[in-house]
Amino acid sequence: MITNNSSSIAQGEAILVDVAGQERGEQGGASKGVDPNEKHLCTDHLLDDLKGRTISGTFITIAAQGIKFLLNLAFIMVLARLLTPKDFGLYAMVTTIMGFLWIFQDIGLSTATVQRQEINHTQVSNLFWVNVGVGSLITLVVAASAPVIAWFYREPRLIGITLVLSTTFLLSSSAVQHIALLNRQMRFGVIAMLDVVSVLGSYLTGVGMALSGYGYWALVGANVIQVVVRLVLAWLISRWQPRLPSRNAQTRHLLSFGANITIGNLINTLARGLDNVLIGRFFGPVAVGLYSRASILLMRPLEQFTIPINAVLVPALSRVQTEPERYRRTFLRVYEAMALVSFLSTGFLLALARPLTLVVLGAKFEQAVPIFAGFTIAALWVPLAGASTWLFQTQGRGKDWLFASLLCSCITIASFIAGLPFGPVGLAIAYSTAGLLFGMPVVYYFAGRHGPVTTADLWFAIFRYLPLWIVVCSVTWLVRLLLVNSPPLVQLVVCAPVGLFAGTILICIVAPMRRVALSLVDILLELKSRISFFNAKQR
484, 485, 492, 452: which is closest to 358 by C-alpha? Predict the structure, then answer.
């Protein structure tokens, strides 16, 4: 699988490098005469062509995420056949505990750097040292907790895994501000290249270690290598150099905003990671391995769908936060397009839960099928609920995000408690259903009660495109009933296109859906013309 993807990766990286070079040229011209220490912070030149930068940035980032998706899919398929569910379970036990602390490598300060209209070199330097200090502290705390984690799970092998993975906190926190400045400058081509290269190096390392018989250490090695490569590239590409900390930089308001974001994310992370802890404590590493693989099989593609849009829209919306109508128009255009693409592409997941799980993970993970099926309901709300959080970030509404996170976390914990007696499958179903029925209304209420985008705007997209999901899922399910005795791969190859075709017909019939689809086509055509113009200039 990895060999077959090599040409696509090379082509994707070539595109990213070309666009990154264009961005550097533009920024170089815009920053002439500017203090070298401040040139990384200027954003006035971005407003002249914000729409074009947003469109091209979205394309670049989606292309990179597409490459990462293929790499991740290949990595999952290869390691699922080289390792055992217990190997994945041991790794997941540690990473779940670490996940509770992982947000502290950022502590919301990257968002503060991107979101602020005005910020200076001294302030960003102070934020850098805060990130590094917190990352160092968390590294020491996690390393010291290794024996406790092993005792809690009654698994001594977790001590070594925890000690090695603890170093990733310090390494990651040292790159936070460099990547934030690249985001602030909307240098999406550079960020995309950085992501693809770090992921490729990570996965090659993991597969190599698995083939050499290192077992669960292959997962640990892949994790560490990805962080190291990302750190080195971020420093080399950004070229921003922090100065020593200063007491007179007026960074308190930035730290306050970051603290609210961090506390909200921490509450959400603690609640969301509780499922793996409970399963590991009461059902053992094999159950965790099955549960975590089923979760990643669904959640990772959803994340890779929303991450590129998030990476582009947060800087773009932050630059126009003082223009309410332009802000609202930009957000809703992207939000409705996300709803259409999301409901169309995820409508077949429930109907094809079994063949999809078996094709990707293999026969050893057949017990993960009902778990994956339980998670498919989350595909209805995860992308759009995540998109609504952009309103908190880009409007500087840290307190609203904190309250929303607290309430949603209570809902998540309650769903896990309700589902625990029914095992991993019960937890998956309870989480997905509770998020749809209770979590989304909470997020939408807080997200839309202030600012240009209202709660009604957010719900409108859900009710408009929900029939699309129902049609795709129903048609796919009916076709699969005809092929129930066929091999899993045949079911996928036949049923998925039929379901998507049915959804496409509905889009063509329903006028509002058709308008959004045509706007996506217009965006692609505009992007094509921009690429052609750029290539002509290069020649």
Answer: 492
Q: Per residue in 505-539, is it b (16+ CB within 10 Å) or e — as a string?
A: ebbeebeebeebbeeeeebeeebeeeeeeeeeeee
- Would 31 be classed as within a structural domain? yes
pLDDT in tens, the chain (539 residues): 333 333 333 333 333 333 334 444 444 444 444 455 555 565 554 555 555 666 666 667 777 777 887 888 888 888 888 988 888 888 988 888 887 777 666 766 666 666 666 667 777 788 888 888 888 998 999 999 999 999 988 889 999 999 999 999 999 888 888 888 887 777 777 888 888 899 999 999 999 999 998 888 999 999 999 999 999 998 888 878 887 877 665 666 666 666 666 676 677 777 777 888 888 888 888 888 888 888 888 887 777 667 667 767 777 787 677 788 888 888 888 888 888 888 988 888 999 999 999 998 888 888 999 999 999 988 888 888 888 888 887 887 877 888 888 898 899 999 999 999 999 999 999 999 999 999 999 999 999 888 899 999 999 878 888 899 999 999 999 999 999 889 999 999 999 999 999 999 999 999 888 888 888 777 666 655 554 544 455 45
Distance CA 92, CA 82 (A): 17
Alpha-carbon distance of 205 to 219, in angstroms, equals 9
Read off the tokens for 75. 């990595």
Nearest-angstrom CA–CA distance, 305 and 435: 19
Separation CA 378–CA 179 (nearest Å) = 30
Closest C-alpha among 317, 461, 328, 330 to residue 384: 461
Q: Considering the domain boundaries, does residue 233 fall inside one?
A: yes
Q: SS3 of 31, please? A: coil
CA dihedral 199, 201, 207, 211 (to 10 degrees): -170
Provide CB contacts within 8 A for 63, sequence distance 6+. 12, 15, 16, 192
End-to-end Cα, the chain, rounded Å: 35
Separation in Å, CA 51 to CA 60, 238, 313, 523 = 14, 24, 11, 10
Range of the domain at 190: 1-259
Residue type at 197? Answer: V
Residue bearing tokens 């505990």: 97
Query: Whole-model pTM?
Result: 0.61
Does residue 282 form part of some domain?
no
Distance CA 389, CA 379 (A): 17
Q: How many domains does the chain have?
A: 1
Provide the CB-side half-sphere exposure for 256 (13 A, CA): 7
Q: What are the structure tokens assigned to 35, written together? A: 């203090």
Is 298 among the domain residues?
no
DSSP string, 311-359: HHHHHHHHHTTT-HHHHHHHHHHHHHHHHHHHHHHHTTTTTTHHHHHHH
Tell me the three state secondary structure of residue 257: helix
Rg of the chain in Å (alpha carbons): 23
Alpha-carbon span 113 to 315, nearest angstrom: 10
